[in-house]
Amino acid sequence: MAMADSFERAVNDLVSKHITVPVDNISISYISPKPQLMCDEPKITLLNNKKQWGTMTIGVKCGNKTQYLQIKVSAEGRYFVADKPISAGTIITDALIRSKLGRLDLLANSVILNKQHIINHIALRNIELDEPIRTSMLQQNWHIKAGQMVKVLINGEGYVIATKGKSLNNGALDDHISVKLNSGNIVEGIVTQEGVTIFDK
Asked: Least buried of 51, 118, 177, 179, by fewest C-beta within 10 Å?
């Protein structure tokens, strides 16, 4: 009995460390029978480690023998839904969404758990009231697009140089992007309201 309790604690620790987002509650049920352990300290690993919850497979190794069993991980936490109907083309703000507590394992994998991945993005389609926000519904609100000519401000100690260049990639506000200056040099800077700012050390 003590060994079985120790095994369950080890599985709980493994799953808890594997989940990378804040959750309020984790519950683990065993789909397969628990293994008959032939050693005091089995090596336990998650095989499908891209998933954070749902049905998962665990490998339990004692010496040269490995047994496999399936578990079901239920997790309760916060995700984001539309606080009011959102029309396609709308830039998402704090006022348009709210967090909701629920079973994360019952949601689609693409439901967004981090608010920063929603704010200032553009809705690609109409989003209904209380509908969970998914990555497929949004696109980045690019402040600068690849190939665009941009103003470049080079900030040095006691001086600012203004020049121009061509953006080599898309960038939202505060993103780091690469710019090819008119001189031919390629530099990296931060997207700001004014253009691209480079801090010259």
From this structure: 51
Burial 51-86 (b: 16+ CB within 10 A, else e): ebbeebbbebebeeeebebebebbbbbbbbbbeeeb
Report CA-CA distances (Å) from 62 to 13, 19, 33, 130. Answer: 18, 25, 17, 48
Distance separating alpha carbons of residues 25 and 126, to the nearest angstrom: 32
Q: Encode the chain (201 residues) as per-residue pLDDT tens digits.
A: 445 578 888 899 999 999 988 898 999 999 988 877 777 788 999 987 788 999 999 999 988 888 899 999 999 999 999 999 999 999 999 999 999 999 999 999 899 999 989 998 999 999 999 999 999 999 988 889 899 999 999 888 888 889 999 999 998 888 899 999 988 989 999 998 888 888 765
Rounded to an integer, what distance in angstroms lies between the CA atom of residue 40 and that of residue 81?
46
d(CA 176, CA 59): 41
Tell me which DSSP letter residue 117 carries: G
Phi and psi at 55, nearest 5°, equal -75, 125
Sign of CA dihedral 25, 52, 82, 131: negative
Per the confidence metrics, is the pTM higher than 0.90?
no
- Using alpha carbons, list the distances in angstroms from residue 5 to 34, 40, 47, 57, 81: 11, 12, 22, 19, 39
